[in-house]
Write a structure and sequence with these properties.
This is Rpr2-domain-containing protein. By secondary structure, the chain is of the alpha+beta class. The chain contains five helices and three strands, in the order H-H-H-E-E-E-H-H.
Length: 147
C-alpha cells in the first residue's frame, strides 16, 4: 500500500530543525567561549553547507549573525563592531544609512541598508515579463522583431 499524503505541515521539517539547532549551538558556544572558537565556526560552516546543499534560504537575520568570509559568529562588542555610515553629501539623505559590521577575526566588513525597505522578489511582484516593453518595440518599428 502507498502512504497517504500528510495533511499540511512543513516540508523538510528535519532539515529546518537541523539548521535551527546548528545556529543556536554556534551562537551559544561563541557566547560561552568569548573568542572565535573552532567549534562554533565549524557549526556555522555546517549550517551554511546544509542550507546550500538543500537549497533552503536562510533568513537575513541568521545570515547577518555569521561572517560570510570566515564563518565566525558575530556577537556585537565581542567578535564584531557595528557602525552606521551615511556617505551622502553632508549626510543629508536619511535613506542612505548603511550598517557596517566589521569582523574582528578576519577584519572584513559587510554593509547592510538600514532604513530602505527591501524590494520584493520578482515572483512576489507577479512580473513574468514586461508586455509594455514589447509593445514599445513594435511601435518603434524595430527590424527583425518577433514577438
Amino acid at each position: 500500500m502507498a502512504k497517504g499524503k500528510s495533511a499540511g505541515g512543513v516540508q523538510n521539517r528535519a532539515i529546518y530543525s537541523r539548521i535551527s539547532f546548528l545556529q543556536q549551538a554556534a551562537v551559544t558556544l561563541a557566547a560561552i567561549q568569548q573568542q572565535s572558537s573552532g567549534m562554533s565556526r565549524r557549526l556555522a560552516t555546517d549550517l551554511r553547507a546544509v542550507s546550500l546543499k538543500t537549497r533552503i534560504r536562510l533568513k537575513p537575520a541568521v545570515k547577518q549573525t555569521l561572517c560570510k568570509f570566515c564563518d565566525s559568529v558575530l556577537i556585537e562588542g565581542e567578535s564584531c563592531t557595528s557602525t552606521i555610515e551615511n556617505k551622502s553629501k553632508g549626510s543629508r539623505k536619511p535613506w542612505a544609512d548603511v550598517l557596517v559590521r566589521k569582523c574582528h577575526t578576519c577584519g572584513r566588513e559587510r554593509r547592510y541598508p538600514v532604513s530602505a525597505p527591501r524590494s520584493r522578489r520578482k515572483i512576489e511582484r507577479g512580473v513574468e515579463g514586461d508586455p509594455g516593453h514589447l509593445q514599445q518595440q513594435k511601435q518603434k518599428g524595430w527590424r527583425n522583431f518577433k514577438a
